[in-house]
Design a protein that fits this description.
heterodimer, A: 273 residues, alpha/beta, two-stranded antiparallel sheet, B: alpha/beta, Rossmann fold, 2 domains, 7-stranded mixed sheet
Chain lengths: 273, 311
């Protein structure tokens, strides 16, 4: 499929920019960002109903990034999709930049909300989905959350709220990469069986390989057809995906690559086209 | 005979009124009746959201509704919003400048018998430290109604602090009220008393007593603590040469601190603070607690006598 090939290329380009941005900034969160590159490519280049040149279009799909620390992947995807010049990515985490270390809504309203403190985004997405229902609007609200932030009790308040109001216009994507800053998620704060937990709140639960573009396209298609319930897509991802020395190593949650490591990472990514 | 009405009733009555505006939505954390939102819920059920005892989610949801063009009012006891949910208020409301209004009831020590956990007295300090936040403490029922209506016009988060008990209605429908503008309730020359909330009435009583002793106090109702009305505070301090503040809140960080920040920078004069002195409250009747924790007209008179000597 031509679309799958193109999206793979987009994801790889996003990954290269993530490495460049975090290396240039000297700080940031590479593992989660790299792990979500395929999903962000699919969202921004295929799934979302949006107009990059008209980010305030009232009928646009909303995308809330709750785990704000992986924002490098969103910034890169947005730049490639035409929200702002790709060269602006160089300003990431620097003084005066719109591309704050964690997303800043007032600096860039197309981010839909600020985020950074964990366990907030899902509640905000619930509010947006309720507003759509009140206004009889058909747009969808997508919300990306990390598995680590499901430690926060507030996340589960929001899960219950989405069930209470049967928000079938809400699609949550859990970045299930099994790491958080101190180690493996099941060691730090056990979450499994995550699917059963969402099911017990009467959500429609879908699971997908977060790096299989073809499967991602079809899971979003399925999610969009669900009626009467909120949907969670548990996306199994590899943290650091695409950069072998970072893959599955929680040490790369919040550590920038050195200049040399970044060059090496870019060479690895170059192999993928 | 002075009419007695709660400021939270003013909130509920005003909500019913402004509910005509379809952008207004109301959320409560399992305290609909206590928050006086029952009438709103009955009249506008499709725009009322019962959020359960899940305050963090309620504040986040309100942010999402606001970012989608609604004007949400979130309500529970002040002990929970703002106090429990500072992080959501800081990031979701203030950092986003989301157009959410907090209508928080049961603030202060006059909650009474419920005791210290339910007597929010740190909320003003916390809220006024946040960028983009407006903080309003109405002094009576009428002022509460006006505050709710004006909060709708402000684009951004507003904290409205209401009390539980029926208190004297000391202002009228035509008494001037503008968020951000303090009102001189009584002109005087010897001392400036600056009060908010239930302490405005205590300050009125105090100024009458002081007058009978030959002290002519100027009384300012400073309902808006942020942004504070610098000009009015400075002008009065210049005239009287000393200031007493009075609030149903901890001494640290509330109205007194806000006034002191203005006085110290622009016109330093002696000041005294009538407030709770770095202590938790306890169970008791509201008037007993006000007496024990130093929040009566007598405490204001005492503070005035002290500050006048320091001139």
């Amino acid at each position: 499929m031509a679309e799958v090939r193109i999206l793979k290329r987009r994801a790889n380009a996003i990954r290269k920019d993530i490495i460049k941005m975090i290396s240039e900034a000297g700080s940031g969160h590479p593992a989660g960002a790299l792990g979500m590159a395929d999903i962000f490519a699919v969202l921004y280049f295929s799934v979302l109903n949006h107009k990059p040149k008209r980010p305030d279009w009232l009928d646009r799909d909303r995308l809330v990034l709750s785990n704000g620390h992986i924002c490098a992947v969103r910034y890169a995807a947005m730049a490639h999709r035409g929200y702002f010049p790709v060269k602006e990515l160089k300003t990431f985490r620097k003084l005066g930049s719109r591309l704050q270390g964690h997303p800043s809504y007032l600096d860039m309203p197309s981010l839909e909300s600020s985020s950074g403190s964990l366990g907030h985004g899902l509640s905000i997405a619930v509010g947006m989905a309720l507003a759509a229902k009140l206004d009889n609007k058909n747009y969808k609200v997508y919300c990306v959350v990390s598995d680590g932030e499901l430690n926060e009790g507030s996340s589960w308040e929001a899960v219950n709220a989405a069930n209470k109001w049967a928000l079938d216009n809400l699609i949550v994507i859990v970045d299930r990469n099994y790491i958080q800053i101190s180690g493996r998620t099941e060691h730090v704060w056990p979450l499994d069986p995550l699917d059963k937990k969402f099911e017990s709140y009467d959500w429609n639960v879908l699971e997908v390989d977060g790096h299989d573009i073809h499967k991602l396209l079809s899971v979003f298609e399925r999610a969009n057809k669900v009626k009467g319930k909120p949907v969670v897509i548990i996306a199994n991802t590899v943290p650091g995906k695409g950069v072998p020395f970072m893959e599955n190593d929680y040490e790369w949650h919040g550590k920038p690559p050195s200049k040399q490591e970044a060059e090496f990472a870019l060479l690895e990514l170059e192999k993928n086209g | 005979m002075v009419e007695l009405k709660a400021t939270r009733q003013g909130y509920g009555d005003a909500m019913l009124d402004i509910g005509k505006n379809k952008k207004i939505v109301a959320l409560s954390a399992d305290l609909t009746d206590s928050n006086k939102l029952g009438a709103f819920e009955k009249e506008y059920p499709e725009r009322f959201f019962q959020c359960g005892v899940a305050e963090q989610n309620m504040v986040g949801m309100a942010a999402g509704l606001a970012l989608s063009g609604k004007i949400p009012f979130v309500s529970t006891f002040a002990a929970f919003v703002p106090n429990r949910t500072l992080d959501q208020i800081r990031v979701d409301l203030c950092y986003n400048n989301a157009n959410v209004k907090m209508g928080s009831t049961h603030a202060g020590i006059t909650v009474g018998e419920d005791g210290a956990t339910h007597q929010a007295m740190e909320d003003i300090a916390a809220m006024r430290s946040l960028p983009n936040m407006t903080v309003v403490v109405p002094c009576d029922y009428e002022e509460a109604k006006k505050a709710v209506k004006q909060a709708v016009i402000i684009k951004g988060p507003v904290y409205l602090r209401f009390g539980r008990n029926k208190i004297p209605v000391i202002t009228g429908k035509t008494t001037p009220f503008h968020i951000g503008r303090a009102e001189v309730f009584k002109k005087g020359t010897d001392v400036t008393i600056i009060a908010c909330g239930i302490m405005v009435n205590e300050a009125l009583k105090a100024s009458e007593e002081l007058y009978s002793h030959g002290v002519n106090a100027e009384l300012i109702n400073c309902h808006t603590i942020k942004p504070i009305d610098k000009a009015k505070i400075i002008a009065s301090a210049k005239k009287t040469g000393c200031v007493v503040t009075a609030e149903e809140h901890q001494k640290h960080g509330g109205l007194g601190s806000a006034v002191a920040e203005v006085i110290v920078k622009h016109h330093p004069v002696p000041m005294e603070f009538v407030a709770v002195n770095d202590k938790f409250g306890e169970s008791g009747k509201p008037d007993e607690l006000m007496k024990k924790y130093g929040l009566t007209s007598k405490d204001i008179v005492h503070a005035v006598n002290k500050v006048v000597k320091r001139k």
